[in-house]
Structure formats: structure tokens, C-alpha cells
Amino acid sequence: MGGFLIFCLFCLVIFIIFLISSLYVVRQQSVAIIERFGRYQTTASSGINLRLPLGIDKIAARIQLRLLQSEIIVETKTKDNVFVTLNVATQYRVNEQNVIDAYYKLMRPEAQIKSYIEDALRSSVPKLTLDELFEKKDEIALEVQHQVAEEMSTYGYIIVKTLITKVEPDAEVKQSMNEINAAQRKRVAAQELAEADKIKIVTAASAEAEKDRLHGVGIAQQRKAIVDGLAESIRELKGANVSLNEEQIMSILLTNQYLDSLNTFAQHGNSSIFLPASPEGAEDVRTQLMSALKAR
């Protein structure tokens, strides 16, 4: 009886070992390639799965179904003989419907993708100048994506997106481009400054001309007011039956005007005055003023 129990326990232990060795877990977003005696048997999905123990069924590989990204650096030459370095980011994943080809047909998918991208870029970029490359890099990335996607589809891979993240010309070319750009900006700035100076000069000249015109108008109006005042004073004196002729009246008015001018002159703190060089100068002024009054 005791020997039978031991045998049963032994069989139970063997069964548990076989059961444990037969169970395996596949994680989410991945599959397992199962081979039997070195030949493909099945593709196990995520969760708990069973296989034949004792190495009969073997997990050959676990394939990720998640999106993967590869960073690639490609050096090539443009149409205008400028060497550039392109940073390319490629996002790809295994086609769930074609996992067998993805595992058995391609050993190093990332290296293969890199080779296809390098070949596509080195056939597209030399057709463009450096400026065109900067302008059309998104179009080039899309064209490369279509070419690589078509090639990789036969191996069970899907190219989701290809991006040219950086275009880096040679250091000397980059410096020359910066210098050209700086020179262009300086030229535009100089033109703008010259235009601003021109506007300032024209505006100042226009303002000066307007000031002179208004000053002349003011002087003319002032002189007219003086003549009108003197004429009115003569008419008032004549109306008052003063026994003086026009020349005597004018002499009196000019004397008053002269004294008023001196008074105004002194009020502004002035200490110098210009007078006619000879006594005949005052007579000339009076004669001219009388002629102006008679003309009115």
C-alpha cells in the first residue's frame, strides 16, 4: 500500500512538471512563434497557451506587434553639389496577418529598412538644390515612405510613417548661407534707414517752408495793420479840425510810433537798437510811409 502511494505521488509530481513545462504566457501586443522539431508549428497569441513538453514544442521567438521607431542618418549630395546629412525617423510595425514572413524571411528588419531608405534618398535628393531640399523635405519623406513600404510589405512589415527631422548642410556651407542672409538683412535695413532719413528731411524742409510762409504772411499783415492804423489816425485828426497838414500829422504819428517801439524794445530786455546811419534816413522812412498812405 505504501509503495502504491509513493508511485501515485511520483506520477503526480511528473504530471505537474509536465503541465508546468507545457504552459507559457504571451504578453499583450506580442505573439510567439512555436516550432516543433525545428519546424514552424503555430503562432500563439497573448494569454496562457499550451505546448508539448520535453522540448518537442519550442518558443522560437516572441514578436512585438507594437509600433517601433528607427533613427537613421543618411549623408548625400544635392544637385548644386552640397553635401548634406539627413536625420530620418521611420515608424514601422509587424503585420499581424503576416507574422511568419516577418520572422522567417528577414533577419535584421531595421538594417533592411535603413538600406531601402538610404537608396531612396540618394536617388531623390541629387535631383534637388539645397534650397529645394529644405522646401520639399516633406514631399521627399512621403515619396521615400511609399517606396520603402512597398518593399517591406513583402517581408511582413508595415511602414507607418517616415519623417525627415533634420537637414544639416556642411559647416562651411551653413556659415556661408548665414552670411548671405545677414548681408541681405543689412541691405534691407540700410534701405529702410535711408528712406526714413529721406522722410525726415522732406518733412523738415516742408515745415521750414511753411514756417517762412506764415512768418511772411504775419509780417505783411502786421505792416498792413500799422498802415491802416496810421491812416485811421490821420482821418481822425482831420475830422477834429486840427490845424495841421498831413505831413505834420504824419511826423507826430511817426514820433509816437517810434516811442512805442522803443518802449516795447526795452520791455524785452534788449540793450541794442539799429537806427538810420544819417538823419535823412528817418525822413526817407516817413516819405515812403506817406506815399503808401496816399496810395490807399
UniProtKB/TrEMBL annotation:
Pfam families: Band_7. It comes from the Bacteria. SUPFAM superfamilies: Band 7/SPFH domain (SSF117892). InterPro entries: Band7/mec-2_domain (IPR050710), Band_7 (IPR001107), Band_7/SPFH_dom_sf (IPR036013). Coiled coil: none annotated. Gene3D superfamilies: Band 7 domain. SMART domains: PHB (SM00244). Residues 21-181 form the Band domain. This is SPFH domain-containing protein.
